[in-house]
């Protein structure tokens, strides 16, 4: 009888213990679920935090690089001082933005671009396009339709070099710059003098205080514009008549890789067309594609830059004509040159690859090809020969 009473007393206790165990299991499952969700959120927050930190570190390194390069500029010149102040202001503003992002990096919210901001950006882009058309004179409506013939004027100098006329002057002087590193310009009275056998004896020698690098220099309005030897991206403006350096500038992003794969000696290629002075170079950030920059030759300042779809791979040279980049390609062993990429900076949507423009039959390679907008001809240097190509142009559609 006693045993039966004990049995009945134990049953409620056991039921209570089993119920408590069941609730504990449910609580444990809930806690596990909450813990997993928090782990997931923490991982996402950690990734956001890491991305912001990496971007901040990268920008700080870039700021140090820019500031160290700017420190070497001649701060006594008013124009350079203005550029320095502008660049420093932009760097400080960006640094403040970086510091702000660092202070809110623990936020789990992603910043989204508002529709009104996108509309504003589109309006600004449209206004910028109008400004560029005014700056570049949209009346330049010719396009290259073919290369009619070639004339080998002379064979003098080494494999690399350049020769040209000054399209901004009325005189007929010829300038020859031999080699990819040198500091002497040879000036001839005219093409006839240049073609004579003893032409080097009749040349006026113009020494440069700073040597050039590559073959991408041009002469415009009485000044030689060239990439300074030993510098990353310094462009020198040299007054040929007075024989002194008139100005200097840095070309952002340039100088790290060759402008053209088949002409590795040239990191920055200067160009002249109907609109004035340009600079052509390639950047790693664009995948090696060529970047076009319009330069104000008076102030020695960048007016605008365009990232083009034209690759520097297998390119040997390029030139500007009527706001349009023409990139010349060849084979590494040398062969028949051809224009395979054309990019109009005012009509970027109509950039086209392989337009079928071939140079007249001539096996070899070009060290330099520059357009003369006054004579509508190309002045080229090919394997030590000085060549003139005549162009066939048509009205743009």
UniProtKB/TrEMBL annotation:
**Source organism, top-level taxon:** Eukaryota
Q: Which PANTHER family match?
A: OLFACTOMEDIN-LIKE PROTEIN 1, OLFACTOMEDIN-RELATED
Q: Which InterPro entries match?
A: Olfac-like_dom, Olfactomedin-like_domain
* Name used for this protein in its record: OLFL1 protein
Q: Coiled-coil region(s) at which residues?
A: 70-97
One Gene Ontology cellular component: extracellular space
PROSITE patterns found in the cross-reference section? OLF
- Which species is listed as the source? Promerops cafer (Cape sugarbird)
């Amino acid at each position: 009888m006693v045993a039966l009473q004990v049995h009945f007393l134990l049953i409620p206790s056991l039921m209570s213990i089993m119920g408590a165990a069941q609730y504990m299991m449910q609580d444990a499952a809930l806690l596990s679920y909450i813990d997993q969700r928090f782990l997931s959120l923490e991982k996402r927050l950690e990734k956001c935090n890491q991305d912001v930190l990496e971007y901040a570190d990268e920008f700080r390194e870039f700021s140090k690089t820019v500031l160290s390069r700017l420190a070497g500029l001649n701060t006594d010149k008013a124009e350079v001082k203005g550029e320095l102040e502008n660049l420093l202001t932009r760097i400080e503003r960006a640094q403040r933005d970086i510091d702000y992002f660092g202070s809110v990096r623990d936020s789990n919210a992603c910043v989204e671009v508002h529709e009104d901001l996108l509309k504003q950006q589109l309006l600004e882009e449209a206004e910028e396009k109008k400004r560029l058309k005014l700056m570049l004179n949209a009346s330049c409506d010719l396009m290259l339709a073919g290369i009619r013939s070639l004339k080998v004027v002379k064979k003098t100098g080494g494999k690399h070099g350049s020769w040209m006329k000054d399209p901004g002057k009325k005189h007929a002087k010829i300038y020859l710059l031999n080699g990819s590193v040198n500091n002497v310009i040879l000036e001839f009275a005219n093409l006839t003098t240049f073609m004579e056998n003893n032409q080097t004896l009749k040349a006026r020698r113009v020494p440069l205080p700073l040597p050039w690098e590559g073959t991408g220099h041009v002469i415009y309005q009485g000044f030689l514009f060239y990439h300074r030897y030993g510098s990353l991206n310094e462009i020198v403006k040299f007054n040929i008549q007075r024989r002194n350096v008139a100005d200097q500038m840095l070309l952002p992003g340039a100088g790290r890789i060759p402008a053209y794969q088949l002409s590795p000696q040239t990191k920055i290629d200067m160009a002249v067309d109907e609109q004035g002075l340009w600079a052509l170079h390639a950047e790693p950030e664009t995948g090696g594609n060529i970047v076009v920059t319009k330069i104000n030759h008076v102030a020695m300042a960048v007016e605008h830059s365009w990232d083009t779809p034209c690759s520097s791979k297998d390119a040997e040279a390029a030139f500007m004509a009527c706001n349009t980049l023409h990139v010349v390609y060849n084979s590494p062993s040398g062969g028949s040159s051809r224009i395979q990429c054309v990019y109009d900076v005012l009509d970027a949507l109509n950039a086209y690859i392989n337009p079928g423009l071939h140079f007249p039959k001539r096996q070899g390679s070009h060290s330099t090809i520059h357009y003369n907008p006054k004579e509508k001809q190309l002045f080229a240097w090919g394997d030590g020969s000085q060549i003139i190509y005549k162009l066939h142009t048509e009205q743009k559609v």
